[in-house]
Amino acid sequence: MSDAGRGIGAEQPFVSHLIELRDRLLRIVLAIVILFLGLFAFANDIYHYIATPLMELLPEGQSMVATGVISPFLTPFKLTLVLSFYIAIPYVLYQVWGFVAPGLYKHERRLVMPLAVSSTLLFYIGMAFAYYVVFPLIFAFLTTTAPEGVEVMPDMKDYLDFVLKLFFAFGIAFEVPIATILLCWMGTTTPDKLREKRAYVIVGAFVLGMLLTPPDMISQTLLAIPMWLLFEAGILFAPLFMSKEEEDDPDPETDPEIEKSAPASESAQDKSSHTDSESSPASAEKSAVDVGPTEEEMEAELDKIEAEEDAEEAREREERARKEAQKIADNVRLDHYEPPLSDRYGPLDEASEKLLDEELEMMDGGVDSDSSGSGGSEKS
């Protein structure tokens, strides 16, 4: 019963965490549902606002089309649901913060809240940059590249998937400063090392731009350049979030002044120690004591200690064997005496054992003679 009680008590904290996680997830879902219900009446207006950058650039007499049967209803529905989640991001991060905060240290709590707020703002700025800067340039390029005789009439569902992909890509790309600051804060890297890898970062930004955007140079460049600039901003602001010890501790691999000053300081130290040893033997002895034993001396000392321990164990085993043999010998000679003589008088030397054996033989002989004499008298 007690074991079962202890088991329940050990599982209770984990169960309480699961209950809290469930409650916070339900609150997030409820907030998104409430926003969705409030925005659903304006679903068509929201879609028209999102489609404006393309519709304004379409040739005269052309417009968007819906090729699916339920696309006129389902596409604005999907856009409103995604928009409800984007609007609820601050509340989502607040619930995540409330669940994680009890397990963080005080200095981590002070850092997480500014990063959460700034990451949310940067995500929204990335979406606004995509809508107001990237969309007009991309659609102006795409609508003018159609071959002659081809009417540009994009499907509303395909257009929504396209813009949602760009919204997400630019929103994540604008989180580069937060990622840079977190890497420096955790000690994974330093601003100086990131500056050395600037060329690789620029190439990686263009590769990500190629993967996250449509296959055109305009959107790829418009995503890669902001990522690079935001990377530079992250390097600039990273020292503000790092501890003073990390800032004050230079990196010997990247600081050339340390490499130049190290040999000079070592030679100066050797010179001063040599001068001190020649001038005062006492100081030389003191420095030798401060340096401590070498590895060879330590190994020799350990071998000596092990040898002493082995010798002590051997002496103990020999003593136990001798006592056991003495006890067996006493019991064999004096099995009719209780307790044995060795227990009453202690261990005997050789002379005493010899005298004791002679006395026992005489006693045994006297007993035999007495028994034989009594037997003869009875006969007679």
Shape: elongated
| Overall number of strands | 0
Classification by helices and strands = mainly alpha
Mean of residue pLDDT? Answer: 75
Describe this structure in words.
The radius of gyration is 46 Å and the shape is elongated. The chain has 16 helices and no strands. By secondary structure, it is mainly α. It has 2 domains: 218 residues, no CATH class; 63 residues. The N terminus and C terminus are likely disordered.
Give a nutshell description of this structure.
This protein is mainly alpha-helical and 380 residues long. The protein has 16 helices and no strands.
Task: Draw up the topology in text.
Blueprint: H1 2-39, H2 43-55, H3 71-87, H4 89-100, H5 106-143, H6 156-173, H7 176-185, H8 191-196, H9 198-212, H10 217-241, H11 244-248, H12 256-279, H13 281-291, H14 295-333, H15 341-345, H16 350-379
Helix pairs in contact: 1-3, 1-4, 2-3, 3-6, 4-5, 5-6, 5-10, 7-10, 9-10, 12-13
Short key terms for the protein model shown above:
single chain, 380 residues, mainly alpha, 2 domains, 0% strand, disordered N terminus
